[in-house]
Amino acid sequence: MPRFREIYADTGDGGVQLGASADRWHLYEDFVHLSPHHTEGKLVRFEAELLPFVDNLDRGALVVVDMQNDFCSPGGWTQRSGLDHEACRAAIPGVQRAVEAARRHGMFVIWVYWHNRPDLRNLGAPTLYSFKHRLDQRGIGEELDLGQVLTAGSWGARMVDELQDHIDEDDIRVEKVRMSGFYGTHLDQVLRTQGIQTLFVCGVNADQCVSTTLEDAYFRDYNPVLISDATATSSPAYCKDAVVFNTKQCWGFVTTTDGFANPRPYPLKGLT
């Protein structure tokens, strides 16, 4: 049997193979190679936790989750519900830096966001309850001063003003009606048809829509990378801390906007 088809094969250069065939990684003492079968293209090394990783820039995309007025702007659902929208706004500068870095890398930028039907016919009671815990709280689709909460075409569903100039017409837009960017959307098809395997994920809320998107990416054998300083939440700080911990321990890797923007060139090696 060819070595690249074996699980836990010896790589021949001091590492151990994880997985098999084109989906394999090579684990070394001080880094992980996510694409050892790529000997052409833009191989770079990203600083990350728990370990740095090497990958081909052509296989990556930036996924920006829910940077919308209802979560991040005054007068939006988060503030009107008594939650900390200013904490969500803390992600905006990091997202700006991440988008600029993705453009320099030649990566797709994928905007994932809530765009619910005005009639709410595709939302069940559990999802509605997530946004309406009290009788006097405005839920998805209900009216606030600036329009319906997280409804397609509303002010609340619009990306925050600070990111409008960072959105290009060639970017990919994925509308969702659940927390995860994968559930009931075309995100998976887009990634597979475009040859994207590594997802650099940021946005809000870290412990809800960001974390479920990271987990669903992991379950589908994508390579999830959380950009920690471009991610925020209106929940208590320990909620984001738990997402950071679980991402680097279980689901993938954690980096920063600086780490994402400034990978180091990696020497090309022969096919292994």
From TrEMBL:
InterPro entries: Isochorismatase-like_dom, Isochorismatase-like_hydrls, Isochorismatase-like_sf. The keyword Translocase does not apply. GO terms for molecular function: hydrolase activity. The keyword Repressor does not apply. Keywords: Hydrolase. It comes from the Bacteria. It holds the Pfam family Isochorismatase. Residues 61-258 form the Isochorismatase-like domain. PANTHER family: PEROXYUREIDOACRYLATE/UREIDOACRYLATE AMIDOHYDROLASE-RELATED. This is Nicotinamidase-related amidase.
